[in-house]
Amino acid sequence: MKKILFPTDFSDVSKNAFVYALKLAKHINAEIITLHVYELPQVNYIDVPINLIDIYEVTELSNFENYKQHVPVLRAIAEKNKLEHIKISNVLVDGDLIANIVRIAEEDKIDYIVLGTKGATGLASTFLGSVTTKVMNNTKAVVLAIPEHCQYQPIKKILFTTQFKGEDIETLNKVIALAKVFRSDIDCLYVKMPDAKDNEVFIENWKKIFVDQDVTFHTITSNDVEGIVLSFIDLHHVDMIAMHIHHKSFFERLFYISLSKKLAYHINIPILAIH
């Protein structure tokens, strides 16, 4: 059975993302491990209070009580979506959030990490904004980031962004495997810079490699990569965008561009990052 790690702070953003974790678990026959990480208070050891141990005990008890209250909420979300049969286990640990996600992903051989993320104005400061890109950098698991305003829709169309690099072939194969589970179509998009060298040979080779797969190839010439991708998502009614992890900076720019240019398009679809 595959494993999905779901880091959560029990915010509305996380609760919304949990629906995607449940749906993914259903389609790939996986169990979900929810993870809540808290940090103990930092103490100035020059003036350590006598009741230091009491401070830590109260903090841990408070976190535990808060955790106990929220776990049933996740179970209720599963029941609401008629997915109460999905196996769910819960982990509460103290320490650094990123370090614990990476550690558990490695120790438990996690296949997917699903987490909510806030974009635009809060990308750098929210719980699962900067966390998302750091997780992408430090784990080999497939990361599925769910933007805060993303409402679950069946995954019927997946957009895969590429520059037709060799490492993208294996990544696209992984996307195809997931698309078959969801019964999704795949659009493979290359946004070519106007001064870029012609790579028709690579494109034709890719078409030959994936000739038997349900993949449609698109090449658009433009300086505005992010704008083209956002437009493509809206025009083609894309339900998920997938990319190789080496495009992680692009993931961040999509959030920024959608706000700074005040485009009519918004990243309100899941983002799948694959190593």
From TrEMBL:
CDD domains linked to this entry: USP-like
Stated name of the protein: Universal stress protein UspA
Span of domain UspA: 1-147
Pfam families, per database record: Usp
Organism expressing this protein natively: Flavobacterium psychrotolerans
Transmembrane stretches, start-end: none
InterPro entries linked: Rossmann-like_a/b/a_fold, Universal_stress_UspA, UspA
Family: Belongs to the universal stress protein A family.
